[in-house]
Amino acid sequence: MKLKKSFLIISAGLLSSLVGYLSLRPDPEAQRFRELLKNQKKLSGTDLETAWQAEPPSHLLVQEIPYENIWFVGKYEDGGGVEIPFKPGRYPEKSQDSGPHHENPGFVGPEKCGECHQDTFQSFVEPGHYKTGRPVTHSTIDGKFEPGSNRFQTSDPTVAFEMIRRGEDYLHGVHFFDWECEVPMDIIFGSSKMAQTYLYWHEDRLYQHNVTHLTQGDQWINSPGFIDGDAAYARPIPQRCMECHMTYFDFRGGINRYSPDSLIMGVTCERCHGPGKAHADYHQQNPDAKDAFSITHPAKLTREREIEICGQCHSGTRDLKKDALTYRPGDRLGDHYHEPDADSDGKNSVHTSNQYNRLSKSSCFKQTEMTCVTCHDPHHNERGNARLFSKRCMTCHTREEDCGLFPKDDVKFADNCIGCHMPLRETAGLKLDSIEGDVFPPLRDHLIRIDQEATDEYLSK
Ligand code: HEC
Ligand code: HEC
Ligand code: HEC
Ligand code: HEC
Ligand code: HEC
Ligand code: HEC
Ligand code: HEC
Hints:
This protein is an alpha+beta fold. The chain has helices at 2-11, 30-41, 110-116, 118-124, 128-131, 239-245, 269-273, 277-285, 303-314, 355-360, 363-366, 386-393, 418-421, 452-460, and strands at residues 61-65, 70-74, 81-84, 133-135, 151-153, 159-166, 169-176, 179-184, 187-189, 195-202, 205-208, 211-214, 219-222, 231-232, 235-236, 246-248, 251-253, 257-258, 264-265, 424-426, 432-434, 437-439, 442-444. Strands 4, 9, 10, 11, 12, 13 and 15 form a seven-stranded antiparallel β-sheet that branches. Strands 1-2-3-14 form a four-stranded mixed β-sheet, with helices on one face. Strands 5-6-7-8 form a four-stranded antiparallel β-sheet, with no helix packed on it. Helix 3 (110-116) crosses helix 4 (118-124). The N and C termini lie far apart (51 Å).
């Protein structure tokens, strides 16, 4: 029976990702910068005219799963198959009603902030937050689309995916026995640091693609939680998923109904500073005003409230108490979210290593007023710069001699405090099902500790 499996896929663990610390150099070229802005704004999605669809041949089973907006195309009653939220032989459809259904509470988007905070904006677009939600375009999409290297064959010989580029449009071709259907790629989740996964619209509903692009090895792979050999294109993108990868969206109801024109993509200024319309309007009308009006400066909050801003997305799986996007910087996180699962730094967490929880167990954290910003500058790309991060350790542990292992032949302590004390670790929650078996993308463990195993690994390199 298919129903059970679809449910499994829909409710299966959320995403994850991989290493591949691609150091993205800050690029000063104005041209590229403009290109980036232009791309971030392209909302229109795929021109569905180009998608090619055919009725499934009569030897395949076609079944509509009641009340779930899911169609199943299979060969055997109890086997795998293709799951799509639209009738086989048809296209996903564009929403005829793309405008907002609810009033925007004052989110204006980062370009607006950039009009006055130019430098902050220019540097802010480099690290992962800004790029973690963006439209599919020539310059944002990864992976190979050329015939010969654009096919992903699953372990089931009857199921394969083809990555198609047709003019401005990108699609997944799903091959199942002798039937084929095409699904457009509209939105990217993931900055490419580790991976990109793809979303598409059917009317006002957002769904995730079966295939994800893994940066490491430049390869196509099953999306996290998806089963190799299935072709699942009916997994809805719920509010919580959007809330961690998008700045703003107008939620219409159901599991995954959004107003297409309302999206402000990526994690941008206003998720850490609060909706900025009143602030921007005021300063536009009062250009001489020096004191900031109606905007949250995280550093002026208490330590706990400041860290909780990051905790919206970096404290494991927390279920919403109300709708998404009710939290505002300065609020108590607990008023909007339930406590994270007890084991959410382990296997059940949403593909993050739950930095907040892990860090708070460290003696560095417990014995000081440390926050996330002690080590992370939220407006600059500092990824992969071990020496710089080590300097941050050494604001407190000021001398190399403070390390109990010092001195040691061939170890330049100041170059890398983190390799031994904050090692990269696989997290069971980050499992990707690949044709070669499970892949676990390692993340930086934020529990700062003395770790003999990590030290041995480090010394043996
Ligand atoms: C019309 C110009 C203008 C726009 C647009 C604007 N700001 Fe400001 N912002 C200012 C001025 C002026 C100040 C006060 C001087 C300063 O701190 O730089 C300020 C200060 C701030 C501060 C520091 C607050 C404090 O308490 O010290 C933050 C944070 C901030 N803005 C964020 C934003 C965000 C986020 C946006 C976009 C939603 C934005 N600004 C849009 C002009 C602007
Ligand atoms: C991931 C969260 C986050 C995002 C996104 C973010 N900021 Fe900030 N911002 C902070 C934090 C935290 C501080 C306080 C930093 C400190 O204590 O040194 C801050 C400080 C500021 C300040 C005041 C101090 C300063 O550095 O001048 C301004 C202005 C500001 N941010 C503007 C922006 C703008 C504009 C954007 C978007 C282009 C943005 N921020 C995006 C977290 C964020
Ligand atoms: C609205 C959700 C959200 C908030 C709030 C948020 N983050 Fe993130 N953060 C993300 C997501 C999603 C990613 C993954 C981006 C990617 O690579 O696609 C990320 C990535 C990062 C990274 C890695 C960046 C890189 O380029 O490799 C750091 C560091 C980080 N966040 C720190 C913070 C800190 C510090 C705060 C609070 C000041 C914060 N984040 C607030 C969602 C959020
Ligand atoms: C609780 C917040 C949260 C939720 C919910 C969430 N994500 Fe993420 N996501 C993150 C964070 C944080 C990262 C970065 C991982 C890290 O560095 O810890 C990330 C990373 C990713 C990446 C890899 C980005 C890279 O670095 O290249 C993809 C792709 C992704 N998420 C997709 C999704 C999808 C699809 C969903 C919904 C099914 C989802 N996420 C739900 C917070 C979240
Ligand atoms: C004592 C320093 C320190 C503090 C405090 C800290 N981090 Fe980190 N964080 C690091 C280092 C080091 C890395 C690895 C950076 C790299 O290799 O690019 C990192 C990486 C990350 C990443 C990228 C994901 C990954 O696994 O590589 C995220 C997301 C992140 N930190 C979030 C946070 C959040 C949220 C907080 C606050 C709860 C926080 N960090 C506090 C040092 C710190
Ligand atoms: C805000 C100050 C501060 C920062 C920044 C800081 N620490 Fe600490 N750390 C402390 C304090 C205080 C202690 C407890 C006293 C001690 O052991 O020195 C501690 C303890 C430790 C310990 C001993 C832990 C144990 O369980 O015995 C290690 C290892 C350590 N820190 C490494 C680091 C590394 C690596 C970094 C950077 C990624 C870092 N610290 C950043 C303040 C800090
Ligand atoms: C090659 C691995 C390695 C590197 C690199 C390293 N450490 Fe350590 N560190 C250790 C080990 C192992 C110990 C435990 C030594 C012991 O007590 O026998 C330790 C102990 C510590 C302690 C606890 C000291 C105490 O007396 O309790 C601190 C603090 C610390 N390191 C900080 C740092 C800082 C800061 C850096 C970067 C400047 C750093 N470490 C670099 C492996 C390393």
